[in-house]
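User: quick one, sequence for these tokens?
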């Protein structure tokens, strides 16, 4: 084959064009694969950020609910404590009164028994 032959020049040009097209197709395919991979990676990172934020929000909400429950329990504890203190005070008063009554009844019985000579 002669180099000065116009047919050979056209054939060489077509071959170069085919090789350039193949190279371009490979570059395009690699770009697509890289882009797809990058999109997947970006989506994964975004999902992790969203998950982290949701977990943080859920923890904050749970902590708030926990604090509300503890606060309500503390209020209820104080209410019960106050109510119990009142009941205890009432019971002490009743007990003192009943003890006094019992002592008085016992004193009277002892006195009656003494006056009858039973003692």
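Assistant:
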């Amino acid at each position: 084959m002669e180099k000065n032959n116009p047919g050979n020049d056209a054939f060489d040009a077509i071959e170069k064009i085919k090789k350039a097209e193949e190279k371009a197709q490979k570059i395009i395919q690699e770009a697509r694969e890289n882009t797809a991979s990058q999109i997947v990676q970006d989506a994964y990172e975004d999902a992790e950020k969203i998950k982290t934020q949701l977990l943080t929000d859920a923890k904050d909400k749970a902590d708030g609910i926990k604090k509300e429950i503890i606060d309500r329990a503390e209020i209820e504890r104080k209410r019960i404590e106050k109510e119990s203190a009142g009941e205890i005070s009432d019971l002490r008063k009743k007990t003192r009164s009943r003890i006094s009554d019992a002592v008085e009844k016992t004193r009277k019985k002892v006195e009656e028994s003494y006056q009858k000579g039973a003692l």
